Amino acid sequence: MEQTASPGAVHESLTDGIGATPLVRLDRVVDGTTAAVYVKAEYANPGGSVKDRAAYAMVTAAERDGRLRPGGTVFEGTSGNTGIGLAMVAARRGYRCVLVVPDRTAAEKIALLRAYGADVVLTPGTVPQHDPRHVRRLAERLAAETDGGWLADQYTNPANPLIHEHTTGPEIWAQTGGRVTHLVAGVGTGGTISGTARYLHAVSDGRVRVVAADPATSRYSGGDGSPYTVEAVGHYLHPDTVVDEWPETYDSSVVDEFVQVPDGDAVRLVRRVAREEGMLLGGSSGTALVAGLQVAAGLRPDAVVVVIAPDSGRAYLSKYFDDDWCIRLGFVDAADGPLVRDVLPAAAPGLVVVPVGRSAGEVLAGLPAGAPDVLPVVADRDATGPDRASGDVVGAVSVADLRAAPADGPVQPGPLLATVGIGESVAGALDRVPDDGRPLLVVADGRIVRSIPRPALT
After folding, report:
1. Fold for domain 330-457?
2. Rounded to whole angstroms, how far apart are CA atoms 340 and 140?
3. Helix H or strand E encompassing 150
4. Residue 4 above 60 pLDDT?
5. Which end of the chain is more exposed for a tag (fewer CB within 10 A), N or C?
6. Given this model, what pLDDT does residue 382 score?
7. Which of 355, 354, 343 is closest to 452 using CA atoms?
């Protein structure tokens, strides 16, 4: 193989290798776009994600000011990547590490945390922010109860955005020779986009336009806050949340434009990029890249779009790159038909749901004609469309049970209804889902779109 890059640096420590990640130009998935689209490959960091930068910065800052001392324990609530970075840095610097992780986190990420020696505490991922089981609240409590415990708290720690202002932004400016015109990044804690954008706005006298890529239902860009599939980006809001706390590390003033990205677009793009560009990206990278390609499509040939790819797809092989998983959640179609969508009754009513907490009498009074005899019970939120996030479904209730219940009594959800992907083969769905005599929920792009009787598939 011909040598096309300079020899790599020699480091005295693994953490010295954090940062200085490459820019990689895309040319197969740009579909005729003439502007240059580059991926800032943050998965090239030693721990595999952009969060290595913040993890190292937060730990070393805490060491300098005495909040983290030898023999101490690092705590954090994290969806995985910050935890991986902290676990790596803690292992290298001799600290115990305890990480509170939402239960919807990919299995590969949890395995990585444990591989670095971290203690992992799983907690429900869809609870209100004030709930003591919430990732941040539980991590705060555990740190406070532990002698020598230090909470990294990436959501408020100024070292998080500052490291990107000092490293990520200058790298992008130098790598593009000052030609970058657009920065595209997702918003999780907001540290990456805030710090990077501050530098690029300043050095370019405001010429660089900053685009925030956000899951379609994320509250950051005005979504309804319902759950989404892609991890480590966006802002979920439980409907019972009392005060919607946004991270202090997110400076919303740096964002010039938001692009809302449906989960399906992000998942299908990372699968395509792997097959056509040979680049394995995580879901939040897919969210950013969908937005980046959308922005680039309307630009002139001299424009330079840099998309920050936070992590690799290696942590999501059991999700976005698993065909069965994608088919069951309605992101892709099975190879063999007929498919579920092919046999859906054309005249069936739209999705009928029961918001949790409503009274039986209220629900019965509002039932449309032709409603199924068993209905999904969902979180009570002001949804923005006719479908519902699968993560908002909390159970099911039969019309017969509603009629038998006190009219003013709250609905009592029973077991969840089974789901089938809209692109799942009929034969595969019937074989996979046991027949319990109840309707099936049809999932498209990770959202519930229809309820159908099982016989409709036969």
Report:
1. CBS-domain (3.10.580)
2. 46
3. strand 149-151
4. no
5. N
6. 85
7. 343
Q: What b/e readout covers 316-347, taking b as 16+ CB neighbours within 10 angstroms? A: beebbbeeebbbbbbbbbbeeeebbbeeeeee
Residues in the chain: 458
Look up residue 356 and give its two tokens.
Answer: 């949790």
Sheet holding 354-355, edge to edge: 354-355, 374-378, 393-398
- Residue whose structure tokens are 């990547």: 81
The pLDDT, as a whole number, for residue 3 is: 43
Q: How many CB atoms lie within 10 A of CB 25?
A: 11
> Quick one: how far is CA 32 from the chain centroid?
28
Report how far residue 253's alpha carbon sits from residue 197's, in angstroms, rounded to the nearest whole number. 10
CATH architecture of 51-151: 3-Layer(aba) Sandwich (3.40)
pLDDT for res 6? 59
pLDDT digits over 305-348, tens only? 999 999 999 989 999 999 999 999 999 999 998 999 999 987 66
188-197 CB burial, b ≥16 within 10 A, e <16: bbbbbbbbbb
Asked if CATH classification 3.40.50.1100 holds for the domain at 18-46+160-323, the reply, yes or no, is yes
> Does residue 120 sit in helix, strand or coil?
strand
For residue 215, which amino acid is it? P
Catalytically active residues are 51
Among 278, 260, 280, 270, residue whose Cα is nearest residue 385: 260
pLDDT of 297 strictly over 50: yes
CA distance 353 to 8: 57
Residue ranges per structural domain of the chain: 18-46+160-323, 51-151, 330-457
| Secondary structure of residue 136 in the 3-state scheme | helix
Mean pLDDT, rounded, for 225-235: 94
List the end-to-end C-alpha distance of the chain, in Å, as a whole number.
Answer: 55
Number of H helices, E strands in the chain: 13, 17
Q: How far is CA 248 from CA 143, 158, 189, 244, 416, in A?
A: 20, 8, 8, 12, 37
Q: Where are the alpha helices (DSSP H) in 277-410?
A: 283-296, 323-328, 360-366, 399-404
pTM: 0.94
Give CA–CA dist 276/293, Å, rounded: 15
Mean pLDDT of the chain: 95
Mean pLDDT of 51-71: 98
Radius of gyration, alpha carbons of the chain: 23
Contact criterion met (CB below 8 Å) for 423 and 330: yes
Cross-strand bridge partners of residue 354: 377
Query: Is 307 exposed, middle or buried, given 0-12, 13-18 or 19+ CB atoms closer than 10 A?
Result: buried
